[in-house]
Inverse folding.
């Protein structure tokens, strides 16, 4: 990648009048606009996008025009915009392909978050902050705009509507995609995550982002969806039939890789566990161990008491004793709380979880005696174990988000591993 000295601008270029205060600009978002023969719309769209981000977006941004082998004056317009606008740069590739353009820019980006949108700006820009916010906070790994949500407002012809819905239905039916809209040209990702995924994405054209999303899903990453308002571009020159055939070939190729077990990326611990709330990775196994011991104690107590009293009374007493012990064990072992401070309060709050467990197991016993009045003690115990497992899941959530919500995590997350990127195409950059 080379930079033209004549048009290069310092990263310390002063903010133009009307720009938001500098103290708000701490995280960098790189917005890539891939273009091919778009001289007629490029300047109008980039100026509109630049103005919107400058005045409405609360984070630092950079707009990268990625010209992938245009044959008209698109590159000249991109150079002009990069020279005039302070947050715009232009990159030229010698080969065609939207995926190729995104790959090369994202792989070399130093931003916290990378994004892309179509040059026609069909998507309402007010959806951009909701798109990237979960990525900047670390809550999600990738984010996509979706036109197929009930909350979306979409204006487009019946042909493209049918093709889009059919394509996404095929993805869900054949490749078990859990995202709703693979084709919307409005996506973003945490840079460290996408740079780990890129080497395994093979497509260089329109199937690129679908393959990226499928790979992210198979790697256990979290994909955030944002309903968007979207107006179809009447001047779109996408060959729908050819693109659909290429997509089908891409789906077949990805399917073969999934079957072969090669369609997954090992992530660093920080990235792999980003979808878990802080501390939960350490808390879950400890809570499970306490739960197993409590359940065994509950079964033994219930079996001993059941011979001397009715089932509901035996269940209540067994639950009460084990709930007190369970709360005390989780307080010390799972959530790391020492000493007697707030011990009684924690037990009182844990009693709420006890009442919930009592209600669930009592309902299970009542239903069993209603529909199978002659059930054996073994069937009775089985029904109680299943009901208790459900109550235990809810109990963990109550303990974590309510009873012990102010406790610190047991261990700190590890530092992220650096991501490597390669660039094999000839590029020209103007910034």
């Amino acid at each position: 990648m080379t930079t033209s000295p004549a048009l290069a601008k310092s990263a310390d270029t002063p903010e133009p009048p009307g720009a938001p205060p500098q103290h708000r600009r701490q995280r960098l978002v790189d917005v890539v606009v891939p273009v091919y023969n778009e001289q007629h719309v490029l300047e109008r769209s980039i100026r509109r996008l630049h103005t919107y981000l400058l005045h409405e977006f609360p984070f630092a941004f950079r707009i990268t025009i990625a010209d992938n082998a245009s044959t008209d004056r698109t590159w000249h317009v991109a150079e002009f915009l990069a020279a005039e606008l302070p947050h715009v740069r232009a990159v030229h590739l010698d080969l065609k392909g939207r995926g190729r353009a995104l790959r090369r820019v994202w792989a070399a980006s130093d931003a916290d978050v990378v994004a892309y949108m179509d040059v026609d700006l069909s998507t309402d820009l007010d959806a951009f902050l909701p798109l990237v916010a979960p990525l900047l906070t670390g809550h999600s790994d990738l984010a996509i705009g979706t036109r197929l949500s009930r909350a979306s407002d979409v204006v487009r012809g019946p042909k493209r509507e049918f093709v889009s819905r059919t394509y996404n239905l095929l993805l869900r039916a054949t490749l078990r995609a859990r995202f709703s809209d693979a084709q919307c040209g409005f996506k973003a990702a945490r840079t460290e995550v996408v740079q780990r995924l890129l080497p395994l994405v093979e497509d260089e054209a329109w199937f690129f982002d679908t393959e990226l999303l499928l790979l992210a899903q198979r790697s256990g990453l979290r994909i955030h969806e944002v309903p968007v308002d979207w107006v179809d571009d009447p001047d779109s020159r996408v060959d729908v039939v050819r693109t659909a055939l290429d997509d089908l070939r891409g789906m077949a190729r990805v399917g073969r890789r999934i079957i072969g077990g090669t369609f997954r990326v090992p992530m660093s611990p920080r990235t792999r566990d980003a979808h878990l709330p802080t501390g939960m990775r350490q808390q879950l196994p400890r809570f499970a161990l306490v739960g197993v011991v409590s359940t065994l104690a509950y079964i033994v107590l219930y079996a001993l008491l059941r011979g001397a009293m009715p089932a509901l009374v035996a269940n209540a007493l067994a639950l009460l004793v084990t709930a007190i012990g369970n709360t005390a064990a989780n307080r010390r072992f799972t959530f790391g709380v020492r000493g007697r401070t707030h011990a009684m309060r924690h037990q009182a709050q844990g009693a709420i979880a006890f009442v919930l467990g009592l209600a669930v197991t009592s309902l299970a016993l009542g239903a069993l005696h209603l529909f199978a009045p002659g059930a054996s003690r073994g069937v009775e115990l089985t029904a109680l174990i299943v009901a208790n497992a459900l109550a235990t899941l809810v109990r963990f959530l109550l303990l974590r988000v309510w009873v012990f919500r102010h406790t610190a995590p047991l261990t700190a997350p590890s530092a992220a591993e650096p991501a490597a990127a390669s660039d094999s195409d000839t590029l020209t950059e103007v910034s």
In short: The first helix runs from residue 42 to 56. The chain has 13 helices and eleven strands.
